[in-house]
Write a structure and sequence with these properties.
With 493 residues, the protein is α/β, with parallel strands linked by helices. The N and C termini lie far apart (96 Å). Strand 5 and strand 6 form a beta hairpin. The chain contains 13 helices and 14 strands. It is globular. The strands form two sheets. A ten-stranded mixed beta sheet has the order 6-5-4-3-7-1-8-9-2-10, sandwiched between helices. Helix 2 crosses helix 9 and helix 6 runs parallel beside helix 9. The longest helix is centred in the first third of the chain and has 34 residues. 31% of the residues lie in helices and 15% in strands.
């Protein structure tokens, strides 16, 4: 090799090395920038109780994707839905405020519409914050935060006298620029949606199981096929809100029911607070529908797995916070109760799994996270702690997510409010040991329930009369501070 050729070779090698170094530095800078503005994929089921996760070995539910996901991230095994019914949970999730502050004091229906029961346009949701930070925002699935108004939209669950389902106009979508959603519609095999540009009298009608159809669209959104779904190069936040395992339980693909072939209801119902031989409606429903309920759980698990795989295959895993949770649980016969909206563990406890590789260490944690805490926690994790509105009542647990250290709540608030009577109903707290609930109704004596969830994990006994001092301490140190913080008029009723 000549001297000139050698010099040219060295020069080109140095240039190539410099280019590679610059490329690596650029990639590191890009990764650092992406980590500072991570994507968010928030997936929630409706009515999936916290016990129905296979890795916990409580319910005999088959959830291989969620089990694997939990091993890769943080599993909060004591997460609770503070008001375990659909609209109030969603109102707390979006606003970071408890129901008396956000006005979603019950399910959004025509019966509660006169009380202003819906997500307020004036509230600054976490999605509004991300929208103003340049995020693309997508919402797929169940919304249920709009009050139906006359003339009611045509829907199987709307009649001339009572309505559930309602369209959400663009001005009420709180920054979500990609929209494929409905209010509430429980025909899982033939769901209906309003897409981004549709008017109230239009609809997309589908013949496909809802979670599967929604996962199909979520995968397209994540891949941004054809650039049609979100802004290229911008961070994004996507909510996927499945309706199952909500009633009617029989509306589930046969392939998921087949996963429980050969199992009897005695095999599948292992909670001693279910009356297996009972004749009441809840007992009969438990025997007849427990297989379908778990089949739905397995189907949701399957579709969630598809979404996670799409994230990872797109190379977005390290830069995306992924959350899986549910709006509330479901009793299915426990305590002779069919559904939710009660204080028992099957109703209040929900799954809460979060993965952010390299940032959130995989582990289980018994943090007593509440629904309004999700808003500030996610925004702080995403680098927007300074943008959390002062009106938010939830508390950020970002430090606990990242390190396992920091202040921890000692209880979670529980409430149920009768429509139009904000000062009445049930209020209570859930701690690591106890669940306390006090009921007030006009013209009736006050009722108190206390369960020791350690000694009596299935909450079979009310020990309030035996433990008056425990009741007093819980009221003074936990419940009263919660009610003062949330401005609850129940204190003076």
């Amino acid at each position: 090799m000549s001297r000139r050729t050698r010099r040219e070779f060295m020069r080109s090698t140095f240039a190539a090395g410099s280019a590679m170094a610059l490329a690596r530095a650029g990639a590191r800078a890009q990764a650092k920038g992406a980590a500072a503005r991570p994507n968010l994929v928030f997936v929630m089921a409706d009515q999936m109780r916290g016990q129905a996760l296979g890795f916990l070995k409580e319910d005999p539910a088959l959830t291989p994707n969620l089990d694997r996901f939990a091993a890769e991230g943080l599993a909060l095994v004591q997460a609770a839905s503070n008001y375990p019914v659909c609209s109030p949970y969603r109102g707390m999730l979006m606003t970071g405020k408890y129901p008396h502050a956000n006005k979603v004091l019950s399910n959004c229906t025509s019966a509660t519409a006169p009380y202003g029961c819906q997500l307020q346009e004036s509230d600054r949701c976490w999605s509004d914050v991300l929208h103003d930070k340049g995020y693309s925002l997508g919402y797929i699935g169940k919304w249920h935060l709009d009050s139906p108004h006359e003339p009611y939209v045509e829907s199987y669950n709307n009649s001339a006298k009572f309505a559930w389902n309602e369209w959400c106009p663009p001005r009420r979508r709180h920054g979500f620029d990609f929209w494929y959603a409905y209010g509430t519609f429980d025909r899982h095999m033939t769901p209906e949606y309003w897409s981004t540009d549709m008017t109230r009298d239009q609809r997309v009608k589908v013949k496909q199981w809802g979670p599967e159809h929604e996962a199909d669209l979520a995968v397209k959104y994540i891949r941004n096929e054809g650039g049609r779904y979100r802004k290229a190069g911008a961070p994004f936040a996507l909510v996927v809100s499945f309706n199952p395992p909500h009633t009617p339980y029989g509306q589930v693909p046969q392939k998921y029911a087949d996963r429980y072939a050969g199992k009897t209801y005695q095999d599948l119902i292992n909670r001693p607070n279910v009356d297996l031989a009972g004749t009441a409606r809840a007992a009969r429903e438990a025997r007849g529908q427990i297989r379908n309920y778990f089949a739905m759980v397995t189907g949701v698990d399957d579709q969630f797995g598809r979404i996670v795989r799409a994230i990872d295959q797109a190379g977005l895993g390290a830069d995306t916070i992924v959350v899986f949770t549910s709006d509330h649980g479901n009793c299915i016969g426990s305590h002779n109760h069919s559904t939710k909206n009660v204080h028992w563990e099957e109703s209040m406890r929900v799954p809460f799994l979060v993965r952010w590789p390299g940032k959130i260490p995989p582990r289980r944690d018994d943090l007593l996270i509440s629904t309004p805490d999700i808003y500030p926690t996610l925004l702080e994790l995403m680098g927007f702690a300074g943008d959390i509105p002062g009106s938010v009542q939830g508390v950020s647990h970002a430090g606990a997510f990242l390190t396992g250290k920091g202040p921890r709540p000692t209880s979670q608030l529980y409430l149920w409010v009768p429509p139009g009577k904000p000062a009445w109903g049930r209020r209570g707290v859930r701690t690591h040991r106890y669940t306390l609930v006090i009921s007030k109704a006009e013209g009736r004596p006050v009722e108190t329930v206390l369960h020791d969830n350690v000694a009596d994990p299935y909450q079979l006994r009310n020990i309030a009369a035996e433990k008056p001092e425990a009741v007093r301490q819980l009221v003074e140190s936990e419940l009263t501070p919660w009610l003062r913080k949330t401005g609850d008029p129940w204190l003076s009723s």
